[in-house]
């Protein structure tokens, strides 16, 4: 008996994102300000590509298979299973990339985040259950598109541009809608469906949400402070001069 299609897809996704990461410098050459940190430039663009793919995949998954929204445990399409498997491959690749290129004290938060996601998604893929719930989690990636675009603009030294300002507004809006609201809804769903979920799976899901929610609230505050509160204070100082 050979390896499951899910494991093969995870391995193929890992290799594909690894190759994309290696070739991105030719596809999207880093601007002069980003030349000091080439690996980070490649890493962010790889993450941007995954966000586009998985965010669109999550939306299409529920649009093409609406009955999955009514049963997040047992109902899912083959395409939804593939989207979750591909995402595991990406998170594994990103984990390895950060581990090899960044100091632990700089990346431990993301490494911890990725570990939780990999464990939770792997359970869903291997047992062919909770794929719908995992797909709900991937709706967060819609916000990640603008989160990664923000990092790209910062690395390109385009902080004081209309593009950055517009992206900041969209980023904060999608953060509330697709990240905070989604995580809150997932937590509520876990509590309401406690009786339908085995204890081990419920524990993994609850611990995962308990870790993810505070991390995302802290990140929201950092974004708000950096892109809005700081710029408001600077504008006030300019008026006082």
How does this model look, in words?
- It contains 8 helices and no strands.
- It is mainly alpha-helical.
- The C terminus is likely disordered.
Order of helices and strands: HHHHHHHH
Class computed from helices, strands and strand pairing:
mainly alpha
Q: Helicity, in percent?
A: over 70%
Q: What gyration radius follows from the Cα positions, in whole Å? A: 19 Å
* Low-pLDDT ranges: 234-241
What kind of sheet is the major sheet?
none
Count of alpha/pi helices: 8
What tags apply to this protein structure?
single chain; 241 residues; mainly alpha; 8 helices; 0% strand; globular; disordered C terminus
In a nutshell, what does this entry contain?
This protein is an all-alpha fold.
Give the helix/strand layout:
Layout: H1 5-27, H2 38-64, H3 78-101, H4 104-127, H5 131-137, H6 140-155, H7 162-192, H8 199-240
């Amino acid at each position: 008996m050979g390896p499951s299609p899910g494991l093969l897809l995870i391995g193929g996704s890992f290799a594909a994102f690894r190759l994309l990461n290696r070739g991105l410098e030719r596809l999207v050459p880093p601007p002069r300000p980003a030349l000091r940190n080439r690996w980070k430039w490649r890493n962010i663009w790889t993450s941007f590509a995954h966000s586009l793919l998985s965010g669109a995949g999550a939306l299409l998954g529920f649009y093409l298979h609406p009955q999955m929204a009514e049963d997040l445990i047992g109902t899912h399409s083959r395409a939804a299973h593939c989207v979750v498997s591909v995402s595991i491959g990406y998170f594994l690749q990103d984990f390895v990339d950060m581990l090899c290129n960044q100091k632990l004290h700089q990346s431990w938060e993301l490494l911890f985040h990725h570990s939780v996601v990999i464990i939770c998604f792997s359970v869903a893929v291997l047992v062919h259950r909770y794929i719908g719930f995992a797909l709900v989690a991937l709706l967060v990636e819609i916000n990640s598109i603008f989160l990664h675009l923000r990092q790209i603009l910062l690395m390109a030294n385009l902080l004081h541009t209309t593009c950055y300002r517009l992206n900041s507004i969209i980023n904060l809006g999608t953060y509330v809608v697709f990240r905070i609201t989604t995580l809150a809804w997932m937590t509520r769903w876990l509590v309401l469906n406690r009786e339908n979920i085995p204890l081990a799976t419920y524990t993994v899901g609850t611990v995962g949400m308990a870790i993810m929610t505070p991390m995302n609230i802290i990140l929201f505050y950092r974004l708000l402070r950096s892109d809005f509160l700081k710029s408001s204070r600077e504008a006030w100082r300019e008026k006082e001069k």
